[in-house]
Design goal:
This protein has helices at about 5-15, 20-25, 30-35, 45-55; strands spanning about 60, 75. By secondary structure, the protein is mainly alpha-helical. The chain has a single domain (about 5-75), classed as 434 Repressor (Amino-terminal Domain). Strands 1-2 form a two-stranded antiparallel ribbon.
Amino acid sequence: MITTAQLRAARALIDITVEDLAGTSGLSPDAIRAAEAGAGLPDPDVGERLKRLFESKGVVFVAAGQQDASGAGVRLQGSPDEGIRPQNLNSTNDD
């Protein structure tokens, strides 16, 4: 289960306003503000909907103790290294 703090952090991480998130998610701005308000857990349906949307934008939700002894958080998934395009290979960069 994600927390209200993770929802706030995820939205900040991808730099999206409440209004833009409402348009993308189909939720009202008030529902998003309520999900982000306070401490603890958001409404399960709203939280899961926002979580799926954030994950589609590259946000990774980390549970407390999942990767180390730290608390719950969010991070951006790294983009894969696409390497060098064949047409750009030459004798100095062709391993």
